[in-house]
Amino acid sequence: NERVFVCGGECENAASERIVQVYNVLTKKWSTLPPSPYSCSEATIIKDQLTLIGGWDTHRTPTSKPVTWTGEEWLELYPPMHTARFWPGVLAIGDLVIVSGGAGAGDRPVDTIEFLDIKTKKWIQSNLKLLRPLSSHHMALCGEYIYIYYWGSAFFWRMNKKNFMASLT
Questions:
Q1: With CB atoms 3.0 to 4.6 Å apart as the test, which of 5, 66, 88, 137 could cross-link to 150 if both were Cys?
Q2: The sheet that has 3-7: what strands, in order across it?
């Protein structure tokens, strides 16, 4: 993909938190999408489309509804998650999107993990939990391991991808 997306961030006003900027690597130019419906979301790419997972609505209420930029508008192409949350960790692997933690009701971090099966467009609720409730963390796949980095304490969690995927069946 020749685009880099920069989505929101923590800003002084809610309108700025909903800004999505796009850098085109080929043309070396920036553009701006219409504001996303939510702030404090985590971005991923599903089927070559930017999808925002979780976030706050305009009343600062956590949402469970993913929204996808279709190239023309923001649409809800996938069903709501089981847990409303903002600032979750998100990682797309093959036909699954893993969503972990985030902050839910009362701005309290949660430890739940759920999965979006992209083929069936269904959420899988899991018995897997984070080692502790986290929000504002990041997930990455490196080799055979899934890592979770929590900025506040340099917290790393390493899980074997093969064992992790087997635990879902």
A1: 137
A2: 3-7, 20-24, 29-33
